Amino acid sequence: MALTSTEAGSARRFWRGSGRIATSLISLLVTLLGLLAFTFMLSHLSPVDPVLQIAGDHASESTYAQVRHDLGLDQPVLMQFWHYIEHLARGDMGISRITNQPVASDLLRTFPATIELATCAMIFGAFFGISLALLAAWKPGSIIDNLARMISLLGYSVPIFWLGLLGLLLFYAVLHWSAGPGRLDDIYVYTLEPTTGFVLIDSWLSGDPEMFRNAIAHLWLPVVVLGMLAMAGITRLLRAALLEESSKEYVTLARAKGAGRGRILLLHIFPNVSGTLITVLALSYASLLEGSVLTETVFAWPGVGRYMTTALFASDAPAILGSTLLIGSCFIVLNTLADALTWLTDPRTR
């Protein structure tokens, strides 16, 4: 039975969409495999000997050889990588040499702290970044526009660890506006029930308002420091997209018809840059997950970033690989999700 033109068009769209999804999945897997292979090779170039970390500097040759065999380091590097992939396919990320716990368990324990910090920083950066970009595009060349350009430049040029240390010095040591490093004061750390892993939610569920206020006092400074990075990128890229869209003919026509500048910006220009905004927000959020490494180290925030930093100094290969896989997966998934949302919301991309 022959298909009608409508049915044939639907079938073509279905197979085209299926092919796009399959291509994205294959690209995702290949990218993750390449990321793991690159990180695995770099971990073997570390000058730190993991065998000596376990056996000790005064271990005998037989003990050294036995530990090396138990770790699988007496095999070729490619074979070690293949064994790691086999274990990873079964959900086994290995045992951390620092905590002596499964890496998957460590990541499940530390990842909520990173998600909480990055999400709050993203909300801060998105709100102020979009607002600054809209104000800059509303009156280009004005004081507000110059201020937005200066903030975006500072956000990119100032090292985030230096900004964090400066913030601790000013708002914690001098002004006492911040509660300092960590997620909670010691008095609350051992009394809080980690129901969700998110300290704001758990402290709210505890019913103790003082604990909730203490959690906010610890959170706001690293959120602002990390959010400055997102705000800089969002402001710069969205401002450029808005100004480029402002030069289109339909904007000139709308002005000729008497439409106000603010109305044109919000109702005509801003919706047409939604695809760019989605991409910028997704990439900014992914960069916050990566950039949290330095921020968590400065503020003693017990997330994946601090866990990875400790693993790097200790040359803990399983922990390094597991953290890299987690952050890389988040980056790739967010990028793929942004492409899909842009394809769905912007007909021009189709």
From TrEMBL:
SUPFAM superfamilies (UniProt xref): MetI-like
Subcellular location: Cell inner membrane; Cell membrane
Residue ranges constituting the ABC transmembrane type-1 domain according to the UniProt record: 111-338
Gene Ontology cellular-component terms listed: plasma membrane
Keyword Transport listed: yes
UniProt-listed CDD domains: TM_PBP2
Family annotation (InterPro entries): BPD_transp_1_N, MetI-like, MetI-like_sf
Pfam families per the UniProt record, alphabetical: BPD_transp_1, BPD_transp_1_N
Domain of life: Bacteria
Membrane-topology descriptor: Multi-pass membrane protein
Residue stretches spanning the membrane: 21-42, 115-138, 150-175, 219-238, 265-286, 319-344
Family: Belongs to the binding-protein-dependent transport system permease family.
UniProt-recorded name of the protein: Peptide ABC transporter permease
Biological source species: Winslowiella iniecta
